[in-house]
Design goal:
Number of strands: 2
Radius of gyration: 12 Å
Low-confidence stretches: none
Structural class: alpha+beta
Strand order of the largest sheet: 1-2
Mean pLDDT: 92
Shape: globular
Helix content: 40-55%
Length: 89
């Protein structure tokens, strides 16, 4: 991310479901909170269900809507998860 936040995820998929997911990295409170909530929310879901997680879903997990300058922080974890699962942006 341009802001310097760095997030990595490790995802174990078993029979098309997210059996386990972990993240590591460093970043601002928004990016860390968002990826933490996201990993909890998608554990146990199918890859197809994860594909359908939207930007709005992530902001709803946060219970706040980040300002325009922080939206990238909130969505960094989702981008990393999608890339890890090869499901695009």
């Amino acid at each position: 991310s341009l802001c310097g936040d760095e997030i990595g995820v490790t995802i174990k998929v078993d029979n098309g479901r997210v059996a386990d997911i972990r993240f590591d990295g460093r970043g601002c409170a928004i990016s860390i909170a968002a990826v933490s909530l996201l990993t909890e929310a998608i554990k146990g879901k199918t890859v197809e269900e994860v594909r359908n997680v939207s930007k709005k879903d992530v902001t709803q997990l946060l219970s706040v809507t980040p300002g325009p300058g922080r939206m990238k922080c909130a969505l960094l974890g989702l981008a990393v998860v999608r890339k890890s699962l090869n499901i695009g942006s």
